[in-house]
Hints:
By secondary structure, this protein is mainly β. It is 10% helix and 45% strand.
Amino acid sequence: MFFPFxxxxxxxxxxxxxxxxxxGETGTLAGRVDLRVAGSSIASVSPLVAFLDGIDxxxxxxxxADVPRISQKNAxxxxxxxxxxxxxxxxxxxxxxxxxxxxxFSKPNHFDLGLYGRGExxxxxxxxxxxxxxxxxxxxxxxxTIFVAPSPWHARVGPSGLFExxxxxxxxxxxxxxxxxxxxxxxxxxxxxxxxxxxxxxxAAAPSERR
Length: 211
């Protein structure tokens, strides 16, 4: 009569062991960006995104299942910047009392959602890495940027220059930095299972807006 309890306890223990094993199969990258440009700061060249890319070709991964949002409110996009992984979808609800038409000319991720009103929402899946600039055809002042990374390992660099990429599969990667105001920087790194890898990247080039 006690068998069901014993089997359940054994299953729970096995699941815990599997969970711990999975945690040990990934690594973490902790980074720091040192911006050495007179009169500039991380905040002044923001957004600055750190992300992992393949060295010998595109990475094979399953896109994250979560769906971030860019809302339309008070004739503005909120947030005005978002970073996602290629293959991930973004929800774009209209929380305004007026109509909006969200679109982008950024190929190959261009789209046009058409007019839709308050309480309606539409999704866009971004299949390709790159920078996507979005607008509203009715309100010229509305604009936002989506950075589509080539992997699920991406993070916005904080004002102090720090960033962290967690649960990274072991292997060799190219760590890249993107900002609309800086030339691209990269560094080849290796992620080891169960370890925390640290890296520091110094940027000394003068910032200028990238298109």
